[in-house]
Design brief:
Number of domains: 1
CATH topology: Rossmann fold
Structural class: alpha/beta
CATH class: Alpha Beta
CATH architecture: 3-Layer(aba) Sandwich
Radius of gyration: 18 Å
Low-confidence stretches: none
CATH superfamily: NAD(P)-binding Rossmann-like Domain
Largest sheet: 7 strands, parallel
Number of strands: 7
Bound molecules: NADP nicotinamide-adenine-dinucleotide phosphate
Number of helices: 10
Strand content: 15-25%
Mean pLDDT: 95
Distance between the termini: 49 Å
Order of helices and strands: EHEHEHEHEHEHHHEHH
């Protein structure tokens, strides 16, 4: 069974990936959809029929739920051709202002799930398969006021680059997607305590376009996908200039 796995399939960019795959890459025998909100995942079966999807309402921070996934993989033995890991969240605010529990949750979803999920699926990945991980442009620099989130995404970016190098000989392509602000439900939680800077509202990208670009970059075997000229410039500047300079102005 040629299989694709998409996490975060209940919202935002994960949903856009499901849509894009159903429209542009319908050759998968089965697509496994992961997120906590089951009713949102079932939307896809109502839209496209049940036979194509395996609905897995899992919390990626729960050890028990990860065991459910592990068992499913052992039983089904899928040939995984695609993993798209979109599950993640951020909370804006200073480190001292965000409850420690929520900061750890951010690390659990954004970092630990990346490691756990990768370890679980790798034995089932085919030569020529692709892995796409949602990092963020927040990975390029430390961000006061969004510190844990930015650090968690720097972890994802570093992890993905190393993973890509390790998997080169198996011809498995790994891409980190690093957009700036994207118009999704992400900000319902991210900006619950501290409102989003006005300029970010103005430059928010369309999730469909970000995902299309990520898909194209993954097909081209690119390690990093950065959407939009502003973010490309930011990426370059963050590579060339000392980070202390940015931190002084941020
Ligand atoms: N929007 C942006 O500005 C932006 C920019 C750069 C990068 N990103 C990154 O892009 C990814 C997707 O974000 P988005 O903008 O599409 O946000 P979103 O619309 O809020 O979607 C987040 C997804 O993650 C899932 N999720 C969260 N916690 C989970 C958990 N514990 N277990 C399983 N699933 C979980 C949610 O599903 P359930 O709630 O149903 O579990 C949801 O499907 C994230 O990694 C985010 O950090 C976002």
């Amino acid at each position: 069974m040629k299989t694709g796995i998409i996490t975060g399939a209940s919202s935002g960019m994960g949903r856009e990936f499901v849509k894009l795959i159903m429209e542009e890459a319908p050759a998968y025998d089965e697509i496994w959809l992961i997120a906590r909100r089951k009713e949102r995942l079932e939307y896809w079966t109502r839209l496209y029929g049940k036979q194509k999807f395996r609905i897995l309402p899992l919390d990626l921070t729960s050890a028990l739920d990860m065991q459910v996934l592990e068992k499913e993989l052992k039983e089904q033995k899928p040939e995984i051709e695609l993993l798209v890991h979109c599950a993640g969240f951020g909370i804006m605010g200073k480190i001292g202002e965000i409850p420690a529990k929520e900061q750890s949750e951010m690390v659990d979803v954004n970092c630990r799930s990346v490691v756990d999920l990768t370890a679980l699926v790798l034995p089932y990945m085919e030569r020529g398969a692709r892995m796409i991980y949602l990092a963020s442009s927040a990975a390029f620099l430390p961000q006061p006021g969004f510190a844990v989130y930015a650090a968690s995404k720097a972890f994802v970016l570093s992890f993905v680059r190393a993973l890509g190098a390790e998997l080169k000989s198996r011809k498995i392509h790994v891409t980190a997607v690093c957009p700036g602000a994207v118009r999704t439900e992400f900000f319902n939680r991210a900006a619950a305590r501290k409102s989003l800077p006005a300029y970010k509202k103005l430059v928010m990208a369309d999730p469909e376009k970000v995902v299309k670009k990520a898909w194209k970059d993954s097909l081209a075997g690119r390690q990093i996908s950065v959407y939009g000229n502003m973010m490309k410039l930011f990426y370059l500047a963050a590579k060339l200039l000392p980070h202390s300079l940015f931190l002084r102005f941020m």
